[in-house]
Amino acid sequence: MNRLSIGDRTMMLVFYVSIGLFSILCVLPMWIALMASFTNELELIRSGYGLWVRSFDLTAYKLIFTGTGSVYRAYGVTVLTTIAGVVLTVFLTSSFAYPLSVKSLKYRNRLSFFCYITMVFNGGLVPTYILTTRFLHLQDTLWVLIIPAALNGFNVFLMKNYFATLPEALAESAKIDGASEIYIYFKIILPLSMPILATIALFAAIGYWNEWFRVLLFINDKELFTLQFLIMRLQQQAEFLNSSLSASARAALGGQTIPTIGIRVATAMVSIGPIILLYPFLQKYFIKGLTIGAVKG
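The structure corresponding to this sequence follows.
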């Protein structure tokens, strides 16, 4: 068994210490925000952010969950659109990217160019709005939050490059045994492509979970508000009320202020949780899928 030299052990120690410090720097902002969400608003204004709770206060969370039905309903809508969007995104992206990776496909370069054009140009906000509302009639439905973001040119090329790294002999031997292209796609290609599928799923999940702009444009039904849009409205309302209160109104409230800072960090904690919990399960696939899919052109 080879023993590490003093120089090697010193370098390993430096690496571990550096990685540990970097990890602390990554976690520190989230920890500070978490502590701020449990801190009294006046204490935050007076002393700023800190590593520990100086004056414990749950007012921000109470304001967020006042009328809990709307918050839980928004959570449900967000979870539903995220799950459905991720499934649809992975299926459409893989089913479009796989034919582009097959060299025998006729016009595959033209199809790739067509996909590339969508990454450079788009129809614009007004044509998109007219198409969605007057022709597709998707306004005030969950489909308007799922379908438009289901296919992305960048994801298609990322997955196409990954498929291109798989040995062609796998598909050729399957064809000799009488397998169809659909059988090869579902039974051979997809099972070997878990890293890139997990990578695209993570990208899609983050996008769907943070969706609020399409809600602003196309959703008027409060039952279909997503969590991010509801949180944004709550922050705007809190800031408006806080800026509109006169001195006499503040005195009548006992000098209390609406915790706009506390609401901001508390809503961040409420909304970021599921994504943080999702990442560790996909981490082992994420780096491999991203690097392999990005290297080969």
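The chain has two domains: 6-47, 59-295.
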